[in-house]
Model the fold of this input.
Amino acid sequence: MKYGDLTYEEIRDRARQDWLAIIPTGCTEQQGPHLPVDNDTWFVERVCNAASSKADADYGVQSLVLPTIPFGPTPEHRNYGAGYIDIPVELHDSLVLSTLESLTAQGFRKIVVWRGCGGHDLRETVKRFNETYNEQSRAFLPGHPYHEVWRRIADLSVPGGHADSFTTSIMLHLRPEAVRKDRIVDPEHEPVDWEDPDLDFANYSSTGVIGDPTHASAELGAKLWDAVVDEVAATLRSIASCPETVPSVDVDKLHFLRRSKA
Done:
């Protein structure tokens, strides 16, 4: 259920009923020549709403999905010249932390931060929140299941990373009108050092694509999408069954970071 569709009284009631609150954090950045720059924001919002509905239908886990934060740190995309909104890390962290604090003040006891961009490292923000509010609320920062879903369903020999066949397939399934099909090409790119603190995609790819999107299809996207929604809904079920407070915070137990997007 969407947080923004409710009145404040309805939100207050759901907090008292111990519904989960989900914060989707999006991103606006280049997605190669064939996908729109809002992909990460669109995708995380779609995933969170679909998983919220499925967790309710399959497991009786009820949750509210907040409006998606559309901007985040994107310095690795700046040298493509356009199509990005780059928010400083400190500002992004503060925005997420303030959102967590606002939800805690409203009575939500379990809050999920679901990242639209795998490169956004919010571990310290979640850790700081849990250390401060561990008697009132608990924040969770789950890892993405996307890589494992790709491994289970698709061709492992197809390289991935950014605007690749995983992303493009799901777009072809759910949002085909937004895909510039004539611009899907296998780019020449170098292996990426995802741990580089000064990561610049332009050093690795002339098109902005990391991986190979030419293996994408709507049929594959349908299979990937169903598996992703299943995995995220199961994650919400697991979070709902966790203790409500954190006696001693170990953020690594709450977060499993994958740098690759697929």
